[in-house]
Amino acid sequence: MNWxxxxxxxxxxxxxxxxxxxxxxxxxxxxxxxxxxxxxxWGMKPGKRPKS
Length: 52
Hints:
Elements: H1 3-11, E1 15-16, E2 19-20, H2 21-43
Antiparallel strand pairs: 1-2
Transmembrane segments: 23-44
Keywords: Membrane, Transmembrane, Transmembrane helix
């Protein structure tokens, strides 16, 4: 699967705001990872501390 051809067919260009399509795909992947990590870690309950 060639992402460049799919992108060009959909939007008619290889760049957005002067930045290549690969940059935006990588930025979207990082943003998705950050959101998923926040959902997981904010959803965790704090562990019980051992009594000293």
